[in-house]
Amino acid sequence: MRAIVQRVSKATVTVGDEQISSIGRGLCVLLGISVEDTQRDADYIVRKILNLRLFEDENGRAWSKSVMDRDFEVLCVSQFTLQCILKGNKPDFHSAMPAELAQPFYNSILENMRSAYKPEFIKDGKFGAAMQVHIQNDGPVTVELTSPTGPIDPKQLSKLEKQQQRKEKTRSKGPSESGREKGALRSRQDPNASSGAEGDVSSEREP
Amino acid sequence: MRAIVQRVSKATVTVGDEQISSIGRGLCVLLGISVEDTQRDADYIVRKILNLRLFEDENGRAWSKSVMDRDFEVLCVSQFTLQCILKGNKPDFHSAMPAELAQPFYNSILENMRSAYKPEFIKDGKFGAAMQVHIQNDGPVTVELTSPTGPIDPKQLSKLEKQQQRKEKTRSKGPSESGREKGALRSRQDPNASSGAEGDVSSEREP
Protein backbone atom coordinates (compact mmCIF):
# COMPACT_ATOMS: atom_id res chain seq x y z
CA MET A 1 0.00 0.00 0.00
CA ARG A 2 1.32 3.38 -0.95
CA ALA A 3 0.14 6.74 0.29
CA ILE A 4 1.21 10.16 -0.89
CA VAL A 5 0.65 12.48 2.04
CA GLN A 6 0.56 16.19 1.32
CA ARG A 7 0.35 18.75 4.11
CA VAL A 8 -2.32 21.21 3.09
CA SER A 9 -3.72 24.60 4.03
CA LYS A 10 -6.91 23.38 2.46
CA ALA A 11 -8.16 20.80 -0.01
CA THR A 12 -11.41 20.11 -1.81
CA VAL A 13 -12.82 17.55 -4.20
CA THR A 14 -15.18 18.39 -7.02
CA VAL A 15 -17.08 16.03 -9.30
CA GLY A 16 -18.38 17.92 -12.28
CA ASP A 17 -19.53 21.25 -10.92
CA GLU A 18 -20.27 19.94 -7.48
CA GLN A 19 -17.91 20.25 -4.53
CA ILE A 20 -18.33 16.99 -2.67
CA SER A 21 -15.69 17.31 0.02
CA SER A 22 -13.56 19.91 1.72
CA ILE A 23 -11.04 20.29 4.55
CA GLY A 24 -9.07 23.14 6.08
CA ARG A 25 -5.55 22.62 7.43
CA GLY A 26 -4.48 19.02 7.53
CA LEU A 27 -3.42 16.22 5.22
CA CYS A 28 -4.49 15.28 1.75
CA VAL A 29 -3.82 11.58 1.28
CA LEU A 30 -3.78 9.83 -2.09
CA LEU A 31 -4.03 6.11 -1.36
CA GLY A 32 -2.98 3.32 -3.71
CA ILE A 33 -3.93 -0.24 -2.77
CA SER A 34 -2.05 -3.12 -4.35
CA VAL A 35 -3.40 -6.61 -5.08
CA GLU A 36 -1.18 -7.96 -2.32
CA ASP A 37 -2.27 -5.65 0.45
CA THR A 38 -3.82 -7.01 3.61
CA GLN A 39 -5.26 -5.60 6.81
CA ARG A 40 -1.72 -5.33 8.17
CA ASP A 41 -0.79 -2.83 5.45
CA ALA A 42 -3.96 -0.86 6.11
CA ASP A 43 -3.28 -0.72 9.85
CA TYR A 44 0.25 0.53 9.26
CA ILE A 45 -0.81 3.23 6.82
CA VAL A 46 -3.67 4.47 9.02
CA ARG A 47 -1.38 4.66 12.06
CA LYS A 48 1.32 6.53 10.16
CA ILE A 49 -1.07 9.01 8.54
CA LEU A 50 -2.56 9.92 11.88
CA ASN A 51 0.71 10.06 13.82
CA LEU A 52 3.22 11.42 11.32
CA ARG A 53 4.75 14.59 12.71
CA LEU A 54 4.43 16.97 9.80
CA PHE A 55 3.22 20.03 11.71
CA GLU A 56 4.91 22.56 13.92
CA ASP A 57 4.05 22.95 17.59
CA GLU A 58 2.68 26.07 19.25
CA ASN A 59 6.22 27.51 19.45
CA GLY A 60 6.78 27.02 15.73
CA ARG A 61 9.08 24.03 16.13
CA ALA A 62 8.80 22.05 12.90
CA TRP A 63 8.11 18.31 12.61
CA SER A 64 6.76 17.99 16.09
CA LYS A 65 3.00 17.53 15.87
CA SER A 66 0.69 15.12 14.08
CA VAL A 67 -2.60 15.88 12.40
CA MET A 68 -4.33 14.51 15.51
CA ASP A 69 -2.17 16.59 17.88
CA ARG A 70 -3.27 19.73 16.04
CA ASP A 71 -6.91 18.79 15.59
CA PHE A 72 -6.56 19.08 11.83
CA GLU A 73 -8.46 17.22 9.15
CA VAL A 74 -7.68 14.45 6.64
CA LEU A 75 -8.96 14.26 3.10
CA CYS A 76 -8.34 10.77 1.75
CA VAL A 77 -8.82 9.91 -1.91
CA SER A 78 -8.38 6.50 -3.49
CA GLN A 79 -5.67 6.58 -6.16
CA PHE A 80 -5.02 3.31 -7.98
CA THR A 81 -2.49 4.94 -10.31
CA LEU A 82 0.02 4.88 -7.45
CA GLN A 83 0.24 1.14 -8.07
CA CYS A 84 1.90 1.73 -11.35
CA ILE A 85 4.60 -0.23 -13.11
CA LEU A 86 6.09 1.45 -16.11
CA LYS A 87 6.33 -0.51 -19.33
CA GLY A 88 8.63 1.88 -21.06
CA ASN A 89 6.65 5.08 -20.83
CA LYS A 90 3.25 3.46 -20.53
CA PRO A 91 1.84 3.00 -17.06
CA ASP A 92 0.55 -0.46 -16.24
CA PHE A 93 -1.87 -0.83 -13.34
CA HIS A 94 -2.23 -4.59 -13.04
CA SER A 95 -0.68 -4.50 -9.59
CA ALA A 96 -3.47 -2.25 -8.30
CA MET A 97 -6.22 -4.06 -6.44
CA PRO A 98 -9.27 -4.41 -8.74
CA ALA A 99 -11.98 -1.87 -7.94
CA GLU A 100 -14.57 -4.43 -6.78
CA LEU A 101 -12.16 -5.57 -4.05
CA ALA A 102 -10.48 -2.23 -3.48
CA GLN A 103 -13.67 -0.31 -2.79
CA PRO A 104 -14.84 -2.22 0.33
CA PHE A 105 -11.23 -2.42 1.56
CA TYR A 106 -10.77 1.30 1.03
CA ASN A 107 -14.02 2.03 2.87
CA SER A 108 -12.88 -0.09 5.80
CA ILE A 109 -9.59 1.86 5.89
CA LEU A 110 -11.53 5.11 6.13
CA GLU A 111 -13.66 3.65 8.91
CA ASN A 112 -10.55 2.62 10.82
CA MET A 113 -9.18 6.12 10.45
CA ARG A 114 -12.43 7.57 11.73
CA SER A 115 -12.45 5.23 14.74
CA ALA A 116 -8.86 6.06 15.57
CA TYR A 117 -9.44 9.82 15.37
CA LYS A 118 -12.63 11.86 15.03
CA PRO A 119 -15.10 10.60 12.42
CA GLU A 120 -16.07 14.10 11.29
CA PHE A 121 -12.42 15.00 10.60
CA ILE A 122 -11.90 12.28 7.99
CA LYS A 123 -13.20 13.28 4.58
CA ASP A 124 -13.41 11.26 1.40
CA GLY A 125 -13.55 11.61 -2.36
CA LYS A 126 -15.96 9.58 -4.47
CA PHE A 127 -14.54 6.18 -5.23
CA GLY A 128 -14.17 5.55 -8.94
CA ALA A 129 -15.50 8.93 -10.02
CA ALA A 130 -13.64 11.40 -12.23
CA MET A 131 -12.63 14.01 -9.69
CA GLN A 132 -10.75 17.24 -9.52
CA VAL A 133 -8.76 17.18 -6.29
CA HIS A 134 -7.75 20.72 -5.34
CA ILE A 135 -4.71 20.46 -3.12
CA GLN A 136 -3.14 23.52 -1.55
CA ASN A 137 0.16 21.95 -0.58
CA ASP A 138 1.55 23.94 2.33
CA GLY A 139 5.35 24.21 2.29
CA PRO A 140 5.26 22.18 0.13
CA VAL A 141 5.51 19.15 2.40
CA THR A 142 4.99 15.76 0.79
CA VAL A 143 5.85 12.37 2.20
CA GLU A 144 5.48 8.97 0.63
CA LEU A 145 4.38 6.11 2.88
CA THR A 146 4.84 2.51 1.87
CA SER A 147 3.39 -0.25 4.00
CA PRO A 148 5.53 -3.09 5.38
CA THR A 149 4.79 -5.55 2.62
CA GLY A 150 5.60 -2.96 0.01
CA PRO A 151 8.86 -2.09 -1.68
CA ILE A 152 12.00 -2.05 0.45
CA ASP A 153 14.81 0.33 -0.28
CA PRO A 154 17.81 -1.91 -0.91
CA LYS A 155 20.25 0.86 -0.06
CA GLN A 156 18.68 1.31 3.29
CA LEU A 157 18.58 -2.41 3.83
CA SER A 158 22.24 -2.74 2.97
CA LYS A 159 23.06 0.20 5.26
CA LEU A 160 21.16 -1.47 8.07
CA GLU A 161 22.99 -4.70 7.39
CA LYS A 162 26.33 -2.92 7.68
CA GLN A 163 25.27 -1.22 10.88
CA GLN A 164 24.16 -4.58 12.14
CA GLN A 165 27.54 -6.11 11.29
CA ARG A 166 29.39 -3.27 13.03
CA LYS A 167 27.24 -3.75 16.07
CA GLU A 168 27.84 -7.46 16.06
CA LYS A 169 31.58 -6.77 16.04
CA THR A 170 31.30 -4.25 18.84
CA ARG A 171 29.28 -6.70 20.79
CA SER A 172 31.81 -9.48 20.42
CA LYS A 173 34.58 -7.13 21.63
CA GLY A 174 32.97 -4.76 24.01
CA PRO A 175 30.52 -4.75 26.86
CA SER A 176 27.26 -6.52 26.39
CA GLU A 177 24.44 -4.64 24.82
CA SER A 178 20.77 -5.07 24.90
CA GLY A 179 19.19 -7.00 22.09
CA ARG A 180 17.64 -3.80 20.84
CA GLU A 181 20.01 -3.23 17.95
CA LYS A 182 19.67 -6.79 16.91
CA GLY A 183 16.12 -5.90 16.10
CA ALA A 184 17.18 -3.03 13.86
CA LEU A 185 17.41 -5.04 10.68
CA ARG A 186 14.24 -6.85 11.42
CA SER A 187 12.54 -3.57 12.13
CA ARG A 188 13.17 -2.46 8.58
CA GLN A 189 11.22 -5.43 7.46
CA ASP A 190 8.72 -4.68 10.17
CA PRO A 191 8.76 -0.91 10.25
CA ASN A 192 6.22 -0.88 13.07
CA ALA A 193 9.02 -1.62 15.46
CA SER A 194 10.77 1.33 17.00
CA SER A 195 13.66 2.91 15.20
CA GLY A 196 16.34 1.39 17.37
CA ALA A 197 19.38 2.92 18.96
CA GLU A 198 20.77 5.07 16.21
CA GLY A 199 20.48 8.10 18.40
CA ASP A 200 18.43 11.08 17.54
CA VAL A 201 19.60 12.53 14.27
CA SER A 202 16.37 14.31 13.79
CA SER A 203 16.59 17.40 11.74
CA GLU A 204 14.86 20.59 12.53
CA ARG A 205 14.36 21.37 8.98
CA GLU A 206 11.68 23.79 8.08
CA PRO A 207 9.36 22.77 5.31
CA MET B 1 15.69 10.63 -6.91
CA ARG B 2 12.00 10.53 -6.34
CA ALA B 3 9.33 12.46 -8.19
CA ILE B 4 5.64 12.64 -7.41
CA VAL B 5 3.95 13.42 -10.70
CA GLN B 6 0.38 14.71 -10.56
CA ARG B 7 -1.65 15.24 -13.70
CA VAL B 8 -3.24 18.65 -13.36
CA SER B 9 -5.92 20.84 -14.94
CA LYS B 10 -3.91 23.72 -13.58
CA ALA B 11 -1.37 24.49 -10.89
CA THR B 12 0.10 27.61 -9.37
CA VAL B 13 2.70 28.55 -6.79
CA THR B 14 2.33 31.44 -4.40
CA VAL B 15 4.91 32.87 -2.03
CA GLY B 16 3.20 35.10 0.48
CA ASP B 17 0.56 36.96 -1.49
CA GLU B 18 2.41 36.77 -4.75
CA GLN B 19 1.70 34.19 -7.44
CA ILE B 20 5.13 33.34 -8.82
CA SER B 21 4.27 30.54 -11.22
CA SER B 22 1.35 29.04 -13.05
CA ILE B 23 0.52 26.36 -15.59
CA GLY B 24 -2.62 25.13 -17.31
CA ARG B 25 -3.07 21.44 -18.19
CA GLY B 26 -0.01 19.36 -17.64
CA LEU B 27 2.03 17.87 -14.83
CA CYS B 28 2.88 19.15 -11.39
CA VAL B 29 6.10 17.47 -10.30
CA LEU B 30 7.39 17.42 -6.73
CA LEU B 31 11.05 16.45 -6.92
CA GLY B 32 13.10 14.99 -4.08
CA ILE B 33 16.86 14.67 -4.59
CA SER B 34 18.82 12.29 -2.38
CA VAL B 35 22.46 12.64 -1.30
CA GLU B 36 23.31 9.74 -3.55
CA ASP B 37 21.78 11.03 -6.75
CA THR B 38 23.89 11.62 -9.82
CA GLN B 39 23.36 12.90 -13.34
CA ARG B 40 22.16 9.45 -14.30
CA ASP B 41 19.22 9.73 -11.92
CA ALA B 42 18.43 13.19 -13.22
CA ASP B 43 18.47 12.02 -16.84
CA TYR B 44 16.12 9.17 -16.05
CA ILE B 45 13.64 11.35 -14.18
CA VAL B 46 13.61 14.07 -16.86
CA ARG B 47 13.05 11.50 -19.59
CA LYS B 48 10.22 9.81 -17.71
CA ILE B 49 8.46 13.05 -16.76
CA LEU B 50 8.43 14.22 -20.35
CA ASN B 51 7.49 10.88 -21.91
CA LEU B 52 5.15 9.31 -19.39
CA ARG B 53 1.85 8.57 -21.06
CA LEU B 54 -0.63 10.01 -18.59
CA PHE B 55 -2.91 11.77 -21.06
CA GLU B 56 -5.59 10.59 -23.43
CA ASP B 57 -5.30 10.95 -27.19
CA GLU B 58 -7.62 12.91 -29.45
CA ASN B 59 -10.06 9.95 -29.47
CA GLY B 60 -10.20 9.85 -25.68
CA ARG B 61 -8.02 6.74 -25.39
CA ALA B 62 -6.44 6.94 -21.93
CA TRP B 63 -2.73 6.53 -21.14
CA SER B 64 -1.62 7.17 -24.68
CA LYS B 65 -0.03 10.62 -24.80
CA SER B 66 2.76 12.35 -22.94
CA VAL B 67 2.88 15.94 -21.75
CA MET B 68 5.06 16.69 -24.81
CA ASP B 69 2.68 14.92 -27.20
CA ARG B 70 -0.13 17.14 -25.99
CA ASP B 71 1.85 20.38 -25.79
CA PHE B 72 1.04 20.70 -22.11
CA GLU B 73 3.11 22.34 -19.38
CA VAL B 74 5.19 21.16 -16.42
CA LEU B 75 5.40 22.85 -13.05
CA CYS B 76 8.34 21.43 -11.14
CA VAL B 77 8.91 22.18 -7.46
CA SER B 78 11.82 20.99 -5.36
CA GLN B 79 10.62 18.87 -2.44
CA PHE B 80 13.30 17.55 -0.12
CA THR B 81 10.71 15.99 2.22
CA LEU B 82 10.29 13.18 -0.31
CA GLN B 83 13.68 11.96 0.87
CA CYS B 84 12.24 11.06 4.21
CA ILE B 85 13.05 8.20 6.52
CA LEU B 86 10.68 7.73 9.39
CA LYS B 87 12.10 7.36 12.86
CA GLY B 88 8.94 6.19 14.48
CA ASN B 89 6.58 8.98 13.54
CA LYS B 90 9.21 11.67 13.12
CA PRO B 91 10.46 12.35 9.62
CA ASP B 92 14.21 12.45 9.19
CA PHE B 93 15.64 14.17 6.13
CA HIS B 94 19.33 13.36 6.35
CA SER B 95 19.14 11.39 3.13
CA ALA B 96 18.03 14.49 1.21
CA MET B 97 20.81 16.24 -0.67
CA PRO B 98 21.86 19.35 1.30
CA ALA B 99 20.41 22.56 -0.12
CA GLU B 100 23.74 24.06 -1.23
CA LEU B 101 24.33 21.03 -3.46
CA ALA B 102 20.72 20.36 -4.32
CA GLN B 103 19.97 23.85 -5.63
CA PRO B 104 22.47 23.91 -8.54
CA PHE B 105 21.67 20.26 -9.30
CA TYR B 106 17.96 21.01 -9.30
CA ASN B 107 18.49 24.02 -11.57
CA SER B 108 20.44 21.87 -14.01
CA ILE B 109 17.59 19.35 -14.03
CA LEU B 110 15.16 22.10 -14.97
CA GLU B 111 17.50 23.26 -17.71
CA ASN B 112 17.71 19.74 -19.08
CA MET B 113 13.95 19.53 -19.09
CA ARG B 114 13.74 22.84 -20.93
CA SER B 115 16.28 21.72 -23.54
CA ALA B 116 14.46 18.44 -24.08
CA TYR B 117 11.07 20.14 -24.50
CA LYS B 118 10.11 23.81 -24.83
CA PRO B 119 11.78 26.17 -22.36
CA GLU B 120 8.66 28.27 -21.87
CA PHE B 121 6.60 25.21 -20.93
CA ILE B 122 8.70 24.30 -17.91
CA LYS B 123 7.82 26.33 -14.82
CA ASP B 124 9.44 26.41 -11.43
CA GLY B 125 8.73 27.20 -7.81
CA LYS B 126 11.17 29.21 -5.71
CA PHE B 127 13.86 26.98 -4.30
CA GLY B 128 13.97 27.09 -0.52
CA ALA B 129 11.03 29.45 -0.11
CA ALA B 130 7.90 28.72 1.90
CA MET B 131 5.39 28.14 -0.86
CA GLN B 132 1.77 27.29 -1.30
CA VAL B 133 1.55 24.92 -4.24
CA HIS B 134 -1.99 24.88 -5.59
CA ILE B 135 -2.47 21.61 -7.41
CA GLN B 136 -5.66 20.78 -9.24
CA ASN B 137 -5.11 17.06 -9.59
CA ASP B 138 -7.10 15.91 -12.61
CA GLY B 139 -8.56 12.40 -12.17
CA PRO B 140 -6.86 12.21 -9.76
CA VAL B 141 -3.84 10.75 -11.51
CA THR B 142 -0.65 10.48 -9.49
CA VAL B 143 2.44 8.46 -10.27
CA GLU B 144 5.58 8.04 -8.26
CA LEU B 145 8.85 7.90 -10.18
CA THR B 146 12.00 6.54 -8.61
CA SER B 147 15.26 6.76 -10.47
CA PRO B 148 17.34 3.64 -11.18
CA THR B 149 19.64 4.13 -8.22
CA GLY B 150 16.68 4.53 -5.90
CA PRO B 151 14.50 2.02 -4.10
CA ILE B 152 13.70 -1.19 -5.92
CA ASP B 153 10.35 -2.84 -5.79
CA PRO B 154 11.10 -6.40 -4.67
CA LYS B 155 8.10 -7.67 -6.59
CA GLN B 156 9.48 -6.22 -9.75
CA LEU B 157 12.91 -7.63 -8.95
CA SER B 158 11.50 -11.09 -8.53
CA LYS B 159 9.71 -10.69 -11.86
CA LEU B 160 12.98 -9.71 -13.49
CA GLU B 161 14.65 -12.71 -11.93
CA LYS B 162 12.01 -15.00 -13.35
CA GLN B 163 12.35 -13.40 -16.77
CA GLN B 164 16.08 -13.89 -16.43
CA GLN B 165 15.66 -17.55 -15.57
CA ARG B 166 13.37 -18.09 -18.53
CA LYS B 167 15.93 -16.45 -20.75
CA GLU B 168 18.71 -18.59 -19.33
CA LYS B 169 16.65 -21.67 -20.18
CA THR B 170 15.93 -20.43 -23.68
CA ARG B 171 19.58 -19.62 -24.10
CA SER B 172 20.73 -23.10 -23.10
CA LYS B 173 18.29 -24.57 -25.62
CA GLY B 174 18.06 -22.02 -28.36
CA PRO B 175 20.25 -19.65 -30.33
CA SER B 176 22.71 -17.47 -28.52
CA GLU B 177 21.66 -14.12 -27.20
CA SER B 178 23.57 -11.05 -26.42
CA GLY B 179 24.67 -10.56 -22.86
CA ARG B 180 22.44 -7.58 -22.60
CA GLU B 181 19.69 -9.08 -20.49
CA LYS B 182 22.23 -10.57 -18.16
CA GLY B 183 23.49 -7.09 -17.50
CA ALA B 184 20.01 -5.78 -17.01
CA LEU B 185 19.38 -7.79 -13.91
CA ARG B 186 22.75 -7.00 -12.42
CA SER B 187 22.29 -3.34 -12.93
CA ARG B 188 18.94 -3.62 -11.24
CA GLN B 189 20.38 -5.31 -8.20
CA ASP B 190 23.34 -3.03 -7.87
CA PRO B 191 21.75 0.09 -9.15
CA ASN B 192 24.54 2.42 -8.23
CA ALA B 193 27.89 1.38 -6.99
CA SER B 194 29.08 4.98 -7.04
CA SER B 195 26.87 6.48 -4.42
CA GLY B 196 29.47 9.07 -3.53
CA ALA B 197 30.31 10.50 -0.18
CA GLU B 198 27.55 11.11 2.27
CA GLY B 199 28.58 14.72 2.54
CA ASP B 200 26.93 17.29 4.66
CA VAL B 201 23.73 16.27 6.31
CA SER B 202 22.76 19.72 7.31
CA SER B 203 19.22 20.29 8.31
CA GLU B 204 17.51 23.67 8.60
CA ARG B 205 16.37 23.43 5.08
CA GLU B 206 13.60 25.39 3.54
CA PRO B 207 11.46 23.43 1.08
UniProtKB/TrEMBL annotation, chains A, B:
Which keywords does this chain's UniProt record carry? Answer: Cytoplasm, Hydrolase, RNA-binding, tRNA-binding
Q: Catalysed reaction per UniProt?
A: a D-aminoacyl-tRNA + H2O = a tRNA + a D-alpha-amino acid + H(+); glycyl-tRNA(Ala) + H2O = tRNA(Ala) + glycine + H(+)
Q: What's a Pfam family this protein contains?
A: Tyr_Deacylase
Annotated region (Disordered), positions in chain: 141-207
EC number assigned by the record: 3.1.1.96
Note the Gene3D superfamilies from the entry.
Answer: D-tyrosyl-tRNA(Tyr) deacylase (3.50.80.10)
Gene Ontology annotations for the cellular component aspect, listed alphabetically: cytoplasm
Sequence ranges of Basic and acidic residues compositional bias: 156-167, 178-189
Q: Which InterPro entries match?
A: Daa-tRNA_deacyls_DTD, DTD-like_sf
Domain of life per record: Eukaryota
Location within or outside the cell: Cytoplasm
Q: Enumerate the CDD domains for this protein.
A: Dtyr_deacylase (cd00563)
Primary localization class, coarse: cytoplasm
Q: Which GO terms describe its molecular function?
A: D-tyrosyl-tRNA(Tyr) deacylase activity; tRNA binding
PANTHER family under this entry? D-AMINOACYL-TRNA DEACYLASE 1, D-TYROSYL-TRNA TYR DEACYLASE
What does the sequence similarity comment in the record state about its family? Belongs to the DTD family.
The record's annotation in NCBIfam families points to: D-aminoacyl-tRNA deacylase (TIGR00256)
Name of the protein: D-aminoacyl-tRNA deacylase
What organism does this protein naturally occur in?
Anabas testudineus (Climbing perch)
